[in-house]
Amino acid sequence: METSCRICSGPVKGSIDLGVQPRGNAFPKPDQLAGEFFYPLIVGMCDSCAMVQLMAEIPQEVRYHDEYPYRASNSTVHSEHFAGVARRLLRTELTGHDPFIVEIGCNDGVMLATVADAGVRHLGVEPSQEVAALARSKGVRVLPRFFDEETAGEIRAGHGPADVIFGANVIAHISHLDSVLKGAVTLLGPNGVFVFEEPYLGAVVEQTAFDLFYDEHSFVFSVSSIRAAARLFGLDLVDAEPLAIHGGSMRYTLAKRGARLPTAAVGELLASERARRLDRPATLVELNRRAERVRDELTALLTSLRADGKRVAGYGAPAKITTVTNYCGIGTELIPYVCDSTPSKQDRVVAGSHIPVVAPSVFREDRPDYAVLFAWNHAKEIMAKESDFAGRWILYIPEVHIL
Known about the structure:
Blueprint: E1 2-4, E2 11-22, E3 38-46, E4 52-54, H1 60-63, H2 76-92, E5 100-104, H3 112-117, E6 121-125, H4 129-137, E7 142-143, H5 149-159, E8 162-168, H6 177-187, E9 188-199, H7 201-207, E10 219-220, H8 223-232, E11 235-243, E12 249-256, H9 264-275, H10 281-307, E13 312-315, H11 320-328, E14 338-339, E15 348-349, E16 356-358, H12 360-366, E17 370-373, H13 379-385, E18 392-395, E19 401-402
Parallel strand pairs: 5-6, 5-8, 6-7, 8-9, 13-14, 13-17, 14-16, 17-18
Antiparallel strand pairs: 1-2, 2-3, 3-4, 4-10, 9-12, 11-12, 15-16, 18-19
Helix pairs in contact: 5-6
GO molecular function, one term: methyltransferase activity
Pfam family, one: Methyltransf_14
Protein name: Class I SAM-dependent methyltransferase
């Protein structure tokens, strides 16, 4: 399979094939299974700009809807992280006269609530009505739209230039990234910055984290690909900072061309990526091979445990559970349920595999022998919360193992 890069129009060949998949965050109700949306989950890297991207394009209206279930504030780790991000931006960038920050995909206001409490002008751009309502309940001002060049122009006309545009785990979700970057140029003030955090390709490769590929992740960024994309649209990559959140992310800072000098970290990370061949499609081919090994070993382990009469549950229902269960062919015969603390996901099922999602109380009452930790990036937080669990944890990142 071959297509053209969404950023530079260079050639992109498929290197990772995770099969036919449903939407990662669909979580339909049991009576909504007819007509589920499926697409081929094939991932490639552009030969020209090294941008890693899904080969298929799923309309954003299909992916983000009024019942979109993800709530960033449900994680204590996330809440603390984004409160810290807000405090840092208030201290470093939002210090002038009447500063203004725009957040793309503000979700339930987990970051902007701290900005609002500080009395700083702000605007969240959030297309999903239910989570937008939660943000408003925290005192956050929200525009119910998708962010693009047109929206950016309207915001600037109504509010003036932005000192900061921020996004977390959303910029890589937007297939029209070219319009987002054009919008950033339109909306930013002369010395403004576009700061965003996304899962990092280097961490995905290192950890064999193939489950981070799903319909919402139109791209998986690297420092190399972001620098190339920024240059195409009149922006410079002026800083890059590794983060531990989400199992390994990167915080990128873009500014208008010539406005700021790049930090030393940018050059160091670019050199590291070249050494690790993160700009070569062959690296994705090797990742695909390792994903196949994880698939085979995980299904073999679960099948063996079932044959031995062991009871296995799932823990955590992030979007990546959809990729894992459908790629591995795991259904209710191997994992009868998965528990998750998000109320909007409970009493629904994982798309495609149709594993029921239940409250954590069910897990504690049932006391299974084993639990597959699908929310592996929250392992420390979850294991501390479930310290009374007498069974054993199964993890599949970076390889299948039992704790």
